[in-house]
Write the structure tokens for this entry.
Amino acid sequence: MTEEIKRKLRWRLVLGAGTEDLLGGLPQEGDWAEKEAALAYLYDREYGPGRNTRAGSGGAGTLDPSNLSVPDWINAIHELFPQRVIERIEKDGLERYGLEEMVTNPALLARAQPSQTLLRAVLRTKHLMNPEVLALARTLVQKVVQELLEKLATQVQSPFLGAPLRRRSYLKVAKNFDVATTLRRNLRHWDTVSQRLILKEPYFHSRIKRHVDKWQILIVVDQSGSMVGSVIHAAVTAAIFFGIPALKTRLILFDTSIVDVTDYCTDPVEILMKVQLGGGTDIGQALAYAESRVENPRRTIIVLITDFFEGADTRVLLGATKRLVESGVHLLGLAALDANANPTYDRELAGRMANLGAHIGAMTPGELAEWVGEKVK
């Protein structure tokens, strides 16, 4: 797509629907239609009542491109536009159009159904909230985090709580039933008449708790706006890791600054309320900080969660990557840590880190736990 076409499309976004004859339609590929819908949700209010009426409000008609809610809209603009544009849109929403529901109306949060969508919106706007709304927001964050903890606890803990061993056990419980051994050792009891296998003796695994020396795991999380889903899941996952005896967990947040929140690992709500989304990104500085906290390289895992869009000199990041890998540290770079694990990231820089020996991917918290569990066996 040429710069001239991009410039025309940007003007189309500025002027809005109705300019198709002059500027043409929006392309099918990309997120141009979503950008127009997000802008229309706010700026169509310029034309007066009825232009952006929600369903069920009793207004006379609507030109809404979609039935966005305020939380949906907040998340959309943060995912579709750069930081400078987001700041202007939020400023217009609050000052010009009075869209203050998320930041000044306690009744909205009191009625709101806790969800990860609303949690992301709260994290993106909490810096604009007055103390009363912020207190309600914290309660909502607590409810969503508790739900996530309950959902993820078993997935994350299970790789560390024991494993079946290939030795016989006389504890005959269903979870220890060894299907393969039972079938193999009872083949001689095949009944040719009934065409059935008679299981005269079942076999069971012995399940014992895995004893390992403590491994150090450092979770280093990019708190830029595009990583909000990963920040949420990283805080919850770190809290679960923190309670696993086999691991010594440290949690580090970064943008152009570094905040070590290890002291709050048992309270993911407090961590999330400290997150400052947006701003620049200095991945190399964060990885160098993590390197300085490594105690035993060959028993250390660093999980770097970032979109790999480095704002600083990439040589610092690549230098730290090379030193860590050569020292024996297991370095895992994740472009996403959430339920979907479907990221957008700088593939070129991630590839350069992979060439130096880092593991690169995207995972759910359960998949991360499995990966860590395999390393600490």
